[in-house]
Every structure is written in C-alpha cells, then in structure tokens.
Amino acid sequence: MTAGYKNLLFHQVVLSVIILCHGNEFFNDNGNVILPGSYNIAWMANVQDFRTLSLITIPGTHHSMARYGGPVEKCQALSLRDQLRAGIRFLDLKVFALGDTLYVMHGVMYQRSTLKEVLDTVRAFLSEFKSEAVLIRVKPEFFEKAMVNEMVQSLIANDQQVWVSSGMPNMGQVRGKIVFLQRSTFTLGIPLLQTNGKSIKKVTNVKDKDNTIIDQLNAAVEASGGDNEVLTYTSGTGFGTFWGMFLTPKRVAEKVNPWLNQYLRQFYPNHPRPWLGVIAMDFPGFDLIQTIIGLNEY
Length: 298
Description:
single chain; TIM Barrel; alpha/beta
C-alpha cells in the first residue's frame, strides 16, 4: 500500500467519523451544533396574522426534553433553547406531579427539568422573538393526574401571555404566547387530534413505518383547518418487540428523517401547499425543520 493511498484512506475514515458524529442535515444527534448566522429563527413572522393555527404546518419534537436515560429513552439531542432557535414550535412534555412540583419525565426517567423551568425558557425565547408562538402539550403521568391541571394553572396564574382557551386562535392572537393543547386528562387549551392515536408506535420494519406516516399525514390534510390542532408523531421504537429490539428511537429517526424530508419536498411545487398540522419528530436536523417550515409558503 502506497503512502498516498494510506493518506487518502485515513482522510476518508476521518470524514466518515465526522459525518457519523455530527449527523446529516435531516437527522441530528449532536447537542453542540451551532446555528449558521443566516439562520431565520423567527420564521412565524412570515405567517399572516389572519391564519389560524390549524392552517399552519408546524415542526415539533416528540418527548422534547428526553435527552437522558440511555438509548432506549433518549429522543432528542438539542437543548430546549436550541430546539426553539432551530425553529421547533411544538413541545411534547410528560410530567409527574410530586408535592408542589411538576417534573418532566420520559417513562420513569427524570429529564433534569421541571415544567416551571421549561415555561421559563420558553418565555425567555418569546420575549426575544415576539413574532413567534410555542405550542405545548402536557401529558400527566403516573399518579395524581387530576392535580396537574390545577398545578399548571397555579404556574401560569393570570399570565396574559399564555393561551388556555379552547377556541382556535389566529396567528395574530398568539404572537409572543405559549399555547396549551388539551387532550384526555389535561384540559387547558386548544383540543388536540392525533393522527395515530398513540405518541409512540412500535416499529419492527422502518418501511412499514414510512407507509404509516403517509397515512397519518393524509389524515392530517383532511382534518386541517378545523377546531382541533392536528398532531402527527413520526417517532418510533422497536424496544419491547422481538424483530425490532435494536431499533432505538435514534435508529428509527436516522432512517425515517431523511425519507420524511424527501416525502415532504414533493409538495413544494404545489400552490398552495398542503397544511399538515404539527409534525413531531425525534432527532430532527436543521434542513428537515426548514423543509417543514417551507410548507407554509403560500
């Protein structure tokens, strides 16, 4: 083997390691990514005031705070602050009421944050970017579920920057605000309609997962524009199954996210482009987030 060939092979290996460590533009498992200076953080500024939230396609994250607990539990790499700055406008939070505190969980794993800390981070973001709105789904977990509504109301008090009405607002009404979404035992905010019925879908074959997402997004198009916020989860895990036992949320997202980007790009020639509601993902990359935001160009 010549010295030149060895040198070329070395550089190819290094490049491969860099790509694997930093993910691609559609999938990201790097928590230290820095946004380009030209990145448009305040993308909702381009959404007309009269457009209702049910007529906007919104990028979101599934288990938004799930960054700890190992490969079975981890669904995100970016911090909450970085997710918001990357364009994420829907947060998916499971909380556990203990004493007078709501802890953010994923399964039995505490995600090193309380709901109050999450709300404080979102408020700080909205203070800086007043054209934006952040939708939040709170799902009570374990015991004392009935207490969560009262505890959230206590947290927000009479804050006029929080939307808790069940009426569907337009963009002009919610700029600079946190918008709660209600479903099941959590009853504050806009009614939420899920296209798949469950937040996590067991995955044993990724191709089957792709086809399921197509069905979900078709359902989202049919339901858009109504009195419910429509939500599609693209996340999945094979944990708990035999054939998919090695398909962690990260492994599923590695395959699903590039495919999802390609699938959504097919709508770009359309005018207007379809409204797909909220699309909540694991490990989304910046280009995938931008593809979803781009569906709002009319």
